[in-house]
Every structure is written in structure tokens, then in C-alpha cells.
Amino acid sequence: MRIPVVKEHGSWVVFILSAIIAIIAGIETSKDPIPYYKLSLTISGLALLINSKKPLASALRGTMERTSNIYWFLIFSISGLLMLVPFLIDGIMVFSIFIPLIALYTVLLYMGKEHSLISELTGFSLLCITAPAVYFVLTGELSLRLYLMVLLFFAAGIFKVRLRMRKRPLDRIVMILYCLGVFMIFRYLDLSTIILIPLSENTITALWIREEGLKTTGQIELFKGVVFVLLFLFYGRPHL
Q1: Do residues 14 and 127 touch, judged by C-beta distance below 8 A?
Q2: Among the four 28, 37, 141, 240, which has the fewest Cβ within 10 Å?
Q3: Would you say 201 and 164 are in contact if contact means Cβ atoms under 8 Å apart?
Q4: What angle do the packed helices 144-166 and 9-29 form, to 10 degrees?
Q5: Is the dihedral of CA 174, 176, 180, 185 positive or negative?
Q6: What is the largest CA-CA distance in the chain?
Q7: Separation CA 150–CA 128 (nearest Å)
């Protein structure tokens, strides 16, 4: 029996780094003891829900193993929701604002637009919910500023990959304007702009596209994500 696992490494990187950032921010903010059990269940539950995307997408596409994919989707999603029960008891109403994103992404998968720009942005929006969810477990508060911070940074990777694949002048302009827009939003939200230093690589790439494979691009994005977390650890926490 083959277990369907999301093999998009970038998705797991965003998920893990978002959780780490939220833990850093939550421990800094909260004065209460860390709820290790609830925190572990929440992160595990979210991971299972993320992994339910693969069998759901396959089932909606109507592949030969549709029945099997539906079973796996139910196993992952139900198991994930059960693990999230302690989190949902307090957070279900607070986090209901993200339900439209889930509905939109499901519709886009059903329409076969899994790799369209809006689908990828919506998918990253769902992945980054990890940050406010983990932060909520630690502090009991919903931080939309934390959510926007991680989402705006990691979403730059979508435009970076598209730029590398197409290399069109329009994609260069979009990349530069996106980075500029993120910088301005950070200033407006009074978030530390120092932690955006890794995005300078996106701007350099837009101005000078060097030859590199997608595997190398993925490794560079992973390194930038780790640097982003470290910069947040040293310079970003006081701004939340």
C-alpha cells in the first residue's frame, strides 16, 4: 500500500519555519509555561491536514485510484482534526476567518488549477496559518501581523520560481515590485525590515538571471528561510 505524501519540499520548509518563528515569538510574549502536549498535537494535526492535500487533489482529478485517495484524504483530515481538538476548543471561532481560504483552494483544485498563481498563493496562505495557530497555542492571541510577516516573506519564493522558469521581463518587474511592496508593508506595520535582507537575493535575480537548476533554487530558498528565522530571532521579536 502506497501512502500519499506531499513531496513538495518547499511546502514543508514553509510549514516548519513558520512554526519555529511562531514558537520564538510565542515564548517571548507569553509568561505562562509552554503547553508542550497541546503544542505537539497542534503542529502534528496541521501537518496531517497539509498532507491531506495530495490525496484530495488526486481524487478531484479523478485518477484511477480515486477511491483509495478519498480514503487517505479522510484518514489524514480526520486524524488531523482530532489532534487539533484541544486547539479548536479555544480557537475555532477566532480562526474561522481562514475558512474562505480553505474553500477557495478546494475549488481551485477541483477546477484543475493547482499550479496557477492564485492557487499557489492560496496554498502558501494556508501553510502560513501555522504561524498564528502555534502562536495562539502559546499566547491565546491571534497575531495577524505575524501571519502577514511570514506569508509576505515566503510568498516571494513563488514569484522567484516563476521568474526562473519563464525569465520574462514582466516577471522581473513583478519580482522587484513585490519586494518593494513587502518592504513598504513591513514599514507600515512597524515590523523589522532587517529581517527582509534575504529578499535582496530576489531583487538581484530579477536584475541578473543566472543559470541554475530548480534544485539549486530550492536550496537557496531554504537557506534564505533559515536566515530569515535567525534574523527574526535577533531583530524581529521586539516589533511584534
Answers
A1: yes
A2: 37
A3: no
A4: 160
A5: positive
A6: 52
A7: 7
Q: Is 102 exposed, middle or buried (0-12, 13-18, 19+ CB in 10 A)?
A: middle
Cell numbers representing residue 212 in the block: 541554475
What are 237's three cell numbers? 521579536
Cα–Cα distance for residue pair 228/193, rounded to 1 Å:
11
How confident is the model over 53-88, as pLDDT tens digits?
989 888 887 666 788 889 999 999 999 999 999 999
pTM higher than 0.90, yes or no?
A: yes
Which residue in 149, 111, 124 sits closest to 13, CA to CA? 124
Contacts of 58-65 spanning 24+ positions with Cβ under 8 A? 58/4, 60/109, 60/110, 61/112
Cα separation of 212 and 125, whole Å?
27
- The Cβ of residue 38 has, within 10 Å, a number of other Cβ atoms equal to 17
